[in-house]
Every structure is written in structure tokens, then in C-alpha cells.
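Whiteboard transcription, Tuesday session. T.W. wrote the C-alpha cells on the left side:
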């Protein structure tokens, strides 16, 4: 009997690679809703440590090395993935925001051939397991948080500084977002927030908060002044080995699950650097950061 093909998993000019994730990283999975029926609303965790089941959904980490681990969940909520046709075509999806357990065994950098550790995430609903989703374990897989991320809480209101386009989560010390209307000034300390920096060397339970600031000493920064520049991998080492800027602090944020903060001092802009505008100049300065296997960054506005 002929059988229908499976669901399309990707498209383009190469085989879809597994998602790169680091121990402790916060991500969102998008799964087809069981029987095509989405949750009627968003459900969020109401306790710390995070629960391993929300509204009937659970996720397990399976890997070559180590036992199967239950995955801590932040939220489960409905998502309408619609294509702008007339009539529109929509796929009913359920989003599951979770923390990759710290027990994930990452692969060593620089290795060739097959990875040492094959890892899978398997979603279940009301005890019935679905297909596995492959992931690629890395020591770090840095992502600077922005206001359009799916890891923002369900019902997140895009008001005030968060209104408009996607904005990187870089703030003044009073918590206000750095924007064209609220730029940074030379000598000021800013805080950039990220996921996926990996292990810190301290013991933190999966789904639990860091009890105190846990710092990293091997995070590299690079500053580039210019209009709307993309992040780059930092090319210089911090002092004393090089001349790159040093973070004021880089590490896990106290009282948060899987959230990292990178504090840095704003340098003076070179003469002639234009100011940000509400339209064409979204940033005039880019802060890039990296660790062993990954990098990311954020374009911000500094007052000339």
C-alpha cells in the first residue's frame, strides 16, 4: 500500500544541520500540535527549579554518553505559523521554551568525522513520545538576546523601548534599553544579555538559578565603530596576551535560569562617527563577543 511522504524538515541547498546548543542554553522548540489541537493559551512555569512537565508536555534529552535526562521547561504556548497568502495557509504549532540540561556532554572542538556524542531531544504529550529532534552538542553556542526572540515570555508586550524592530537586549545600569533615543555615552558601563555561553566551572543544577554571580575568564570582546556593522569573531586576546577590551563581568546572572550577562565599558567614538537615527542608522557601534566555539554581538547606539 502506498504511503504518504513524511513532513518537510527543511529546504535549500544543503542538508539541514542539527541545531547547535550548549549545556545550560535556553531555546524554543516548535512542534506540530498533537492531533492538530493547540493549547488554548500559554502556560508558564510557576516555580524554581523549573518543572519538567507543563500542560501535558515533557521533553527528554537522550545522548550517547550519559543517562536520559528530563528537560526543564519554561513555557508551552500556541503559535500560528502563517504564510501570507489569500486565503492564508497556517500550520498549528506549539512552542516549548526549555533549558538544555547542564548534563549535556559537549563534543570537543577541532575533532573530525562523526561527533563523539549523538544527542536528541524527544517531546512527549500525555506520556506518548514523538519523533526525536537531533542537536549538536557544543561547549558554547552564543546568542545575544533580542526583543523578537521566541524565548521572550508568552504575552510579552512590545511597548516603550521594545516597540518597533528587533532590538538587542543591551541596557544601561538602570535597566533602560540602549536605543537611538536613549544612546550610551563614553565611559558608561552597559550590560548585554545572552544565552549559550556554556559551563562556568561552578555547579548549577539544571532548571535552577545561579545563587550568586558566576564569572567567566575566557570571554573575548571586540569593539567596532561604524554604521550597522555585523558582529565578527574577536581576533585579539584580552590583556596581558593582547590588547582587546576586557569585560567588567561576564557570566551567569544571579536569580535567573541559563541567562548570562556581559558588562563592558563604552569607549569614546572616533571623530566623524554619525549618530543613530530612527530610520537608516540603527547602530553606530558593534560589540562582538566570543568563546571557544562561537561568537555573536549587538549593534548599539553611542552618543558621538
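and on the right, the sequence the group agreed on:
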Amino acid at each position: 500500500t502506498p504511503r504518504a511522504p513524511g513532513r518537510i524538515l527543511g529546504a535549500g541547498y544543503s542538508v539541514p544541520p542539527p541545531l547547535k546548543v550548549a549545556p545550560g542554553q535556553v531555546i524554543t522548540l516548535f512542534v506540530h500540535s498533537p492531533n492538530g489541537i493547540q493549547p488554548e493559551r500559554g502556560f508558564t512555569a510557576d516555580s524554581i527549579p523549573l518543572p519538567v512537565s507543563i500542560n501535558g508536555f515533557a521533553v527528554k534529552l537522550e545522548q550517547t554518553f550519559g543517562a536520559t535526562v528530563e528537560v526543564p521547561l519554561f513555557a508551552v504556548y500556541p503559535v500560528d505559523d502563517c504564510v501570507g497568502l489569500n486565503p492564508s495557509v497556517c500550520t498549528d504549532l506549539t512552542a516549548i521554551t526549555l533549558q538544555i540540561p547542564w548534563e549535556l556532554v559537549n563534543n570537543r572542538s577541532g575533532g573530525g568525522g562523526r561527533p563523539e556524542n549523538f544527542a536528541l531531544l524527544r517531546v512527549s504529550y500525555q506520556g506518548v513520545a514523538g519523533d526525536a529532534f537531533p542537536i549538536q552538542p557544543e561547549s558554547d553556542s552564543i546568542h545575544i538576546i533580542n526583543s523578537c526572540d521566541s524565548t521572550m515570555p508568552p504575552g510579552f508586550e512590545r511597548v516603550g523601548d521594545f516597540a518597533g524592530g528587533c532590538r538587542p537586549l543591551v541596557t544601561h545600569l538602570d535597566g533602560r534599553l540602549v536605543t537611538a533615543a536613549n544612546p550610551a555615552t563614553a565611559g558608561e558601563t552597559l550590560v548585554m544579555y545572552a544565552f549559550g555561553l556554556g559551563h562556568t566551572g561552578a555547579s548549577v543544577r539544571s532548571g535552577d538559578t545561579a545563587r550568586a554571580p558566576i564569572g567567566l575568564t575566557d570571554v573575548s570582546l571586540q569593539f567596532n565603530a561604524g554604521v550597522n556593522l555585523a558582529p565578527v569573531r574577536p581576533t585579539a586576546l584580552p590583556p596581558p596576551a593582547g590588547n582587546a577590551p576586557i569585560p567588567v563581568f561576564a557570566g551567569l546572572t544571579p536569580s535567573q535560569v541559563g541567562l548570562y550577562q556581559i558588562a563592558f565599558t563604552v569607549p569614546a567614538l572616533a571623530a566623524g562617527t554619525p549618530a543613530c537615527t530612527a530610520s537608516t542608522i540603527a547602530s553606530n557601534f558593534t560589540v562582538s563577543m566570543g568563546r571557544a566555539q562561537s561568537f555573536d554581538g549587538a549593534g548599539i547606539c553611542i552618543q558621538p
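Someone added at the bottom: The mean pLDDT is 88.
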